[in-house]
UniProtKB/TrEMBL annotation:
Originating species: Streptomyces canarius
InterPro entries found in the cross-reference section: DAP_epimerase_AS (IPR018510), DAP_epimerase_DapF (IPR001653)
Binding positions (substrate): N15, N76, G86, N87, N158, N191, E209, R210, G219, T220
Protein name from the UniProt record: Diaminopimelate epimerase
Chief subcellular location: cytoplasm
Matches recorded under Pfam families: DAP_epimerase (PF01678)
Catalytic residues as annotated in Swiss-Prot or TrEMBL: C85, C218
Pathways per UniProt: Amino-acid biosynthesis; L-lysine biosynthesis via DAP pathway; DL-2,6-diaminopimelate from LL-2,6-diaminopimelate: step 1/1
Amino acid sequence: MSTRIAFLKGHGTENDFVIVPDPENALDLPPAAVAALCDRRAGIGGDGVLHVVRSAAHPEAQGMAAEAEWFMDYHNGDGSVAEMCGNGVRVFARYLQHAGHVAEGDLTIATRAGVKTVHIAKDGDITVGMGRARLPEGDVTVTVSERSWPARNVNMGNPHAVAFVADLAHAGDLYTAPPVSPAATYPDGVNVEFVVDRGPRHVAMRVHERGSGETRSCGTGACAVAVATARRDGADPAVTGTPATYTVDVPGGRLVITERPDGEIEMTGPAVIVAEGEIDAEWLAHAFG
Ligand SMILES: N[C@@H](CCC[C@H](N)C(=O)O)C(=O)O
């Protein structure tokens, strides 16, 4: 009988993940294994993998172990590693609650972008302290077919280019990554958000994610969009002295983002566990062997 590896499936505003609990970091998860798990036809299917490891057991997280017991070892669907995943943190927290590792209330989670504070509310939504955005100087340009837009470079621990467009359909099919220039601005690739206005402090976006393609939602992307929109609207909280809250609609739902005058950003949204099962370890080994 072949060995089985436990997994769960979850999503946050339809940004979906294969969750692999591995507290002692005993599993081998090379990029090809992650890509096989995320394959929507030949695997389980997901935009990425949330590898759940105790911080003390992971070389990239040991330094955060005193502050956060659990490390979100996040991988994009193509097997690449990213610094941060906002929807992933909410789903990771929901998994910890589901597994009985934490109760509702406050907790911390280690990520490659540092320790994140999380609040699991009684009503079910989860709020993540996403830290501060960095806005490197210099505009960039996003192009789709014959259209180009100036875009804002926003770093939420991971890189984003935020373009305001007249119509979300102008982003096209997003089967391939939209070119962003100058390319040297993003030596490790970039997530690209297309944004339209929906009303006062209310926008809608589509996203092409580095390493995953078009997804139904991106939490760090929604934060980048809120920050870029506040700057465009003259509502930078550091200047006005008042928090700026934006509702960001994504194809998979809605996220609410607040930036405070000290620059700290909070994101609130849902997180759902939809299934639990077992991976055939032999299949997985063949998938990357
Ligand atoms: N979907 C995520 C972002 C995942 C990482 C991204 N694709 C990257 O490579 O930076 C989110 O919810 O933030």
